């Protein structure tokens, strides 16, 4: 377990001992926006309706499939 306030071991040394990349320790993922979440949900729904389609066909349906009003 990482201890950022440990006075005896720097973060870089703790990462080294745990064989853990230091960049991974400092990485903080960005949250998806509401618009991105809505788009992902619509793609998931489309995939459930057309399970036989592969990824290339899922990504190239007509635009009106994803942007229906209502």
Description:
The structure is a single chain. With 70 residues, this protein is mainly alpha-helical. It is elongated, with a radius of gyration of 22 Å. It has helices at 11-17, 22-26, 34-49, 55-58. The protein has 4 helices and no strands. The mean pLDDT is 85.
What's the structural blueprint in terms of helices and strands?
Layout: H1 11-17, H2 22-26, H3 34-49, H4 55-58
Shape: elongated
Give the number of DSSP strands.
Answer: 0
Class inferred from helices and paired strands: mainly alpha
Number of H- or I-type helical stretches: 4
Radius of gyration: 22 Å
As residue ranges, the low-confidence spans are none
Q: What order do the SSEs take from the amino end to the carboxyl end, as H and E?
A: HHHH
Largest sheet report: none
Average the pLDDT over all residues and give the rounded result: 85
The proportion of residues forming helix, as a percent range, comes to 40-55%
Q: What share of the residues does DSSP label as strand, in percent?
A: under 5%
What would the keywords be for this entry?
mainly alpha; 70 residues; elongated; 4 helices; single chain
In a nutshell, what does this entry contain?
With 70 residues, the chain is an all-alpha fold. The chain has four helices and no strands.
């Amino acid at each position: 377990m990482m201890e950022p306030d440990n006075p005896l071991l720097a973060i870089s040394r703790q990462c080294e001992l745990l064989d853990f990349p230091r960049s991974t320790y400092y990485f903080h993922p960005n949250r998806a926006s509401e618009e991105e979440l809505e788009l992902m949900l619509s793609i998931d729904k489309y995939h459930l309706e057309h399970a036989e389609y592969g990824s290339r066909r899922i990504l190239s349906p007509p635009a009106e499939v994803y942007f229906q009003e209502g």
